[in-house]
Amino acid sequence: MPLRVTFLGTSGAIPTTERNPSGLFVAREGEELLFDVGEGTQRQMMRFGTGFSVSHVFVTHLHGDHVLGIPGLLQTMDFNDREEPLAIHAPHGTRRQLKSLVNALGNTPSFPVRINEVGGGDVAYRADEYEVRAFATDHDTRSVGYALVEDDRKGRFDRERAEELGVPVGPEFSKLHEGEPVELEDDTVVRPEQVVGDPRPGRSLVYTGDTRPTTATIEAVDEPDLLIHDATFADDRAERAADTAHSTARQAAEIANRAGATQLALMHLSSRYAGDASNLLEEAREVFDGEVFVPDDGEELEIPYPDV
User: Fold this and answer.
1) pTM, whole model, 2 decimals?
2) Which position among 65, 210, 225, 297 bears the catalytic label?
3) Catalytic residue list contains 65
4) Contact 206/226 with Cβ under 8 angstroms?
5) Dihedral (Cα; 256, 202, 193, 165), 10-degree rounding
6) In this predicted structure, what is the pLDDT of residue 245?
7) Dist. CA 61–CA 117, nearest whole Å
């Protein structure tokens, strides 16, 4: 079951010729999610072939470079005769502003649009096999980050052990793997824990949006497979980062280490690094033990299951 991330916009507040403002598309086996909708996001979705079948939009905060793409995206969905409802999740206290954006063109979309306000610790969206949680961030406005966390998977089925216990090959194997005991012809009962291993973790990703370094990011998920973190500035502008409620690449790497992340993606790069972001990458690599990268717009990443 693939879990694929497409980086639609990786720039900071000012777009560049190579980088669009913030936007992140996540596809998970038939469901498509969008995190932040910077200006031009709908064009990026066309350019990189994601399509518009998004069911949920998760907004980290209401600065323009994260939400100005909402009116255009909704209009395009309207023109495409969309009927399915759309949910927009955003920080507490932003409903009125979001409603203004939804109706910015003077008319209400022809499909239902639901606005859901969330705060740190809330489950913004619960699906069959995963959930999207909000966590507190530290920006200069109402803001949250989001963590997509899959449920644990079933443990591995020990076929050899099952056969040793006399379980016949067939439907009984499935019953045991689903957690049901099986009674054999000699009245022996084989229980799932005898042939099924411990639950295995699912996959997870964490997206901070704009933020100073926070403990809440570290606590959002234990050992996330992918952390997508604000890395607006290099070390020499650490004071500027603090003043504007952003992070440096090195600070993002420190958070990734403390969170036990497997991969770190540096996002929301200041336009001053439009031509060359190598110093951000180098500073993060000096700190982070895992894989770190600066994604380009349009770059795709498939997150594999943990090798457990």
Assistant:
1) 0.90
2) 65
3) yes
4) yes
5) -120
6) 98
7) 11
